[in-house]
Each structure stands twice: as structure tokens, then as C-alpha cells.
Amino acid sequence: MRPPVMDADSAPFWKGCDEGRLMGQSCEGCGTFRWPPREYCPSCHSHSSRWSGLGGTGQIVGLVVVERAPMPGFDAPLPLPIVHVELDGTGGKMVLQANLRSDGKAAIGDRVRTEFTDAEGAQRLPVFVLQKS
Amino acid sequence: MSEPRFRDACAISGIGWSALSKASGRTPAALATEAALAAIADAGLEPAEIDGLVTLFWGARDTPAPSEMVAALGLPRCRLSHCDAGGGAWACSAVMAAALAVHAGICRHVLVYRGANMPSAPPPSADPDYWPSGQRPWSEPFGAVHAATLYGPHVAAWMHAHGLSNSDFADLAVMQRAHARLNRKAMMQAPMSVDDHQQSPWIIRPFRLLDCSIFNDGAMALVVSASDAARGSKHGVVTIRAALGGSSGAPVRAWGSGDYWTLNAEALSRELYAQAGISVADIDIAQLYDPFTGMALMHVEQFGLAAAGQAARAVAEGEFGLDGRIALNSSGGHLSEGNLAGLGHVIEAVQQLRAGGVRDDLCDGAHSFDRSCCRQVRSPHIALVAGECGDSGLILAREA
Ligand SMILES: [Zn+2]
Which stretches make up the Thiolase C-terminal domain (chain B) (predicted)? Predict the structure, then answer.
């Protein structure tokens, strides 16, 4: 699995992942969650924001299952489900897209929680796990 | 909203293409030059009369830059060299840019072109490091860089909302293949059945192999001129009645706003039809961007050609065949003709609207409308062409 592209906007998010915490950025001007992370709020254009820990739970709003390597060098085990998750407590504004650790039986509407990969020396990545109801 | 004075002021006066293949063995510049010379000749022009160039920017190894084409075509003067970075929405947007330059009186004849060796020399956009930051790396997470991971989740949400499954995509793939078999330049000529579609391997669910756009080498080009300059052509005049470009900023209008499958198409189509002074009932043919069957069906619904959740059923009932209510993707589209990121959709609309109709079906002489050899739609007057996600669109018209 390739590490994500990291930049100044997203650095606090990835630092949080390394610490095992899912971090979200909200606007100090209008309170709206910013996703993806960025310096200026697209709603009120405020430059101020705060990062806070999220609960990491949410609901699947979109999904695909990769059955065939999409490009050379793609080394994740297949089939690989990728889900889009609307995270709780973000006013529907933070939809995180990440791999799902599962047997591929997930469906839109399913509830998930966030865990983090733990490969030696590598950037930890968020990964979703189905919540048993 | 643009002024009505833009309406029908410009025309697509010439079209051309190279062979489409899996491995051309030629440079993108050679392919683009072949398509450009064909389009220029088709417009009844000399290369030196081209004074503007518009192409797609999708990485350095993709299509030759305008400066390369000025040199390749030996143009004495070039007054517009514009690269559209709109991806699958670039083609309609590029035609609009060309028409605006002509309408403004800055250029006389603008060439819109793309030449690429997609499978034999893939562009750097296939490399995730090519996307420095912003939304895109988050959309295709952790190395799964593929249009199906970008759009598939939204298609899956739309399928879930309407109770659709992959088998609902089969009829569109089969119909477009049937159209391609009446198109001599189409890559895919083998017959396809619903069963073939359902037996094809999964690539990225919800898409099987036969749900996906093909990937090819080749080039296409067209010329935009003032409608006045195009009058007298043996092809008649195919005007640009309305055009819109732009971007919604994301596959869906914005993450976290409303449903998860509404593309820019809904908003753009309303403006486009108003600009053209038409309603959906006036549309005779539609060439809608088809990276995947499911995306094409979403475009059908969000451009208002079928009710929400009903596009697949309408295809199955024949509403979008060559003799249906609206002929859809009559060339075979990206699924079966070939992929120049939407330029082929524009060219097919022009061919269908021309006086002589399409010139690369299997008819000898006059069109027979016999669907074993003829893909010409019966006297179409208005065409809708749509870029990916409805981030761009054209209404083209056959001048009476
Ligand atoms: Zn704000």
C-alpha cells in the first residue's frame, strides 16, 4: 500500500494517525468541518481553524471493491474494499476514504469504526472496521 | 449565463481522426498531426488558415502541446494556445474555448485536438505522486489510483438508492457494442451479449471489465469556425447552439452536501438547455461521457433524459437505440469505439448532424437505416454532448 500524499495542510491529520487518533479540522470562523484539510474555509474563508480528536465512528456512504490491481506496483491484498465514511460529529462534512478491513460483505449504510495500520517504520494509515450491531 | 448572441454563431466545420489501436508504434505528435490534417481538409481549409489551438493538458507525455502542433503543422500565426485540464470534461469545454476565441474575432479557425498513446505510453497522471495535494489523493486512497475508485463509490451510492445491481448495466454495454459494430473506426467489433457482460471479470466492483471504457492509442481533431465561414460547405453547417464548461470541484457537487451521487450534470444541464432555448424533448441524439456504464446511466438521468433510477430500464426497453426516443452514444462511445477523453463524442454528434450523415458506417452510398449496416439516426436536428460528471456540455444543431 502506498503512503498517502502528505502536505502542510494535511500534516496534523497524519500526525494524529501516527498517534492512533483520528483528527478533524473545523473552522474557527463558522464551525464547519474542512475536508480535505485546507488553510482557508471554503464556506466563510476564515484562515483560523482547530484540530480535535474525533470518535472515529461513522456510516458507509460509498464503496468499491478492488478485484484487480489498478496499476503496476499495487501490492495490497485483493479483493480490497475501499469505503467512503461520513464521520460522526462532523456535520456530514468529513467523508474519509480508506480501506475496509473485512471479508468484503460491507454495504452502504453499515456502521464502522476507525483503526490504524501498524507497519514497522511506516506512516500509520486509517482503516475502517465494521461495527457489529 | 452567456448572451444569446453566442447561440449558433460558431460551427464545427471539420472533423478528423487517426486509426485507434492498442499500440500505434507512432508518436502522439504523428497521430495528432494526421487527425489535424484530416480535420482541416474536411473543413475545406489549408493548414495555414488555422490560427488557434486547444488541447487537453493531462501530463507531459499525453498529447503534444500547442507549441509542438504549431511546428508540426507549420502554422504561420497562432493566436490562441490553450490547454484544458478538465480531464473527462475537457472536450466540450475545449470546443467552447475555441468558439469563444472565434466569436470574439481573435481567431478565424481553431483546431481542437488530442493525440495520445494511452496503453503503449501511459501519461504520468497514472502515478499518484503526480497529484501533489488537494482533493485528488484523498479520492483514490493509498495507491488505488483508478477512475473506478474515484467514481465507483458514487455510482454504488446511486445503485443502492435505486435498488440497482451490476446486471442492470449490461444492456447499455450491449447496445453501445452494437453501435460500434456499425462504426468502421471503432476498436471493439466483436459481438457482445448480456451473458458476455455478466461473465466478464470484476475489475473494481461495481464494475466488470465490460463496464469499463477502453484504453487506446490514437488521435482525433476538429475545427471550430464562424458559422458564416462554414456556410456553403458540402457538409451543411453544424452550429454550437450552447456551451458550458467549468467544474464542480469534485465528482459529486461537494462532499457532505446532500446525496452522494448528484453530479454537476443536474445544475449544468438546466443552464445548458436554457442557454440553447430547448427542452429535453427537443434532443434527438445524446453523446454522454461513459468512463463506465454506471456513470453513463447517471449522466442519462441527471441530464434529464430519464427519471431518477430509470435509465437502465429505459435502455433495456430500447428508448436509447438508433431508432429510439433519443439515440445514445451512437458511435459506441468510450465503452466500444475508443477513448480520446470525449472528443469522439463531439465528432460523432457532428457526423450525425451533417448533411451527408456519418461517413464511417457500413452503408455504401446513401444511408439505408438498415441496422445491420447503417448507424445514421433518422434526420436528427439537435445533439447533446456531455463531458464527465456534467462538468461540461454542448448543444449542437443542424442548421436548417
Ligand atoms: Zn468557516
Answer: 262-355
